[in-house]
Design goal:
Elements lengths: L1 H20 L3 H26 L3 H27 L3
Length: 83
C-alpha cells in the first residue's frame, strides 16, 4: 500500500508540473481534475492503511468540491473566451 501512495505522489508531482506548464488553459483544467482524482485515491488508500473510516467521508466531500470547482472554472473559461 505504501508503494501506491509513493507512486501517487510522484504522479501527482508530474501532473502539477503539467498544470503549471500546460500549453492551453484546458490542459491545465484537465491536470487539475487528474490531481484531484489522485488526491482522493491517496486519501482512500490512507484510510484503508490506518483503518480510519472518517477519512472516506472527507474524500467524498473533497470529490464533490473538486467537481463543482471544475464545472465553475470551465464555465468561466467558456463564457469569458479565455484560451
Amino acid at each position: 500500500m505504501s508503494f501506491c501512495l509513493i507512486a501517487l505522489s510522484v504522479l501527482g508531482g508530474l501532473v502539477t508540473i503539467r498544470m503549471i506548464l500546460g500549453p492551453t488553459i484546458w490542459d491545465r483544467l484537465l491536470a487539475f481534475n487528474q490531481l484531484s482524482a489522485k488526491v482522493v485515491i491517496g486519501m482512500v488508500f490512507f484510510s484503508l492503511m490506518t483503518s480510519q473510516t472518517f477519512i472516506l467521508d472527507i474524500a467524498i466531500v473533497y470529490t464533490l468540491f473538486s467537481f463543482i470547482s471544475s464545472v465553475f472554472i470551465a464555465r468561466f473559461i467558456r463564457e469569458r473566451g479565455v484560451f
